[in-house]
Every structure is written in structure tokens, then in C-alpha cells.
Task: inverse folding
């Protein structure tokens, strides 16, 4: 059983990941349909599935969410010589916050484990 603090942090991370997923799924309506838009749809569906999984109790979902957010941050920062748009900055901030929340819940669960 998770402590109240860990449960609250996990729920916050779940809402962040789900909101990012919905944003990625909605992004093709605001730009031309190309390969990047299709990747945004796939990424959004993945974020939504992982975000819904974060509402559960699985420790595996915490690892998957951490890895997914980290990979997306690295992919977003590949085009660093170009200035980041405000939407990209918001996505990076959201992913970083969700990733840190998942890591915090993993640490809290690790400290609770007897032995």
C-alpha cells in the first residue's frame, strides 16, 4: 500500500502524462498531416496508455513512464541550436515534472519495502 504522499504524487504524475498524451493526440489538428504528425499521434496514444496505467498500482508503469518521459525530453532537445517554441518548452517542463514525480514515488516505495 502506498503512503498518502506517494499516492498523491503518483496521481499528479498520471494527470500530467495523460494531459501530455491528449495534447499530442490533438496536435495534428493544428499542423499539416505529415510524418511528424503521425509520430505525435503514436506518442500521444502511448502517453495516454501509460498515464492511465499510472492511476493503478504497478511499479513497472512508473519505470515505463520515467523512461518514456526521458526519451521524449532527449528527442525534443535534439534540435537545440534552434530556439525552442513555447509549446516545446511546456512539453519539456511537463515531461520533466512527471519524470521526477515517478522517480520520487519509486524512491518512496523503495524506502517502504521491508528488508
Result:
Amino acid at each position: 500500500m502506498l503512503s498518502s504522499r506517494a499516492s498523491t504524487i503518483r496521481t499528479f504524475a498520471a494527470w500530467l502524462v495523460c494531459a501530455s498524451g491528449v495534447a499530442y493526440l490533438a496536435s495534428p489538428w493544428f499542423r499539416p498531416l505529415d510524418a511528424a504528425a503521425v509520430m505525435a499521434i503514436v506518442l500521444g496514444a502511448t502517453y495516454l496508455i501509460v498515464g492511465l496505467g499510472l492511476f493503478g498500482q504497478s511499479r513497472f508503469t512508473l519505470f515505463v513512464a520515467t523512461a518514456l518521459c526521458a526519451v521524449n525530453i532527449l528527442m525534443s532537445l535534439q534540435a537545440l541550436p534552434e530556439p525552442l517554441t513555447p509549446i516545446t518548452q511546456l512539453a519539456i517542463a511537463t515531461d520533466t515534472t512527471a519524470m521526477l514525480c515517478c522517480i520520487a514515488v519509486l524512491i518512496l516505495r523503495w524506502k517502504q519495502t521491508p528488508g
About this structure: The chain is about 75% helix and 0% strand.
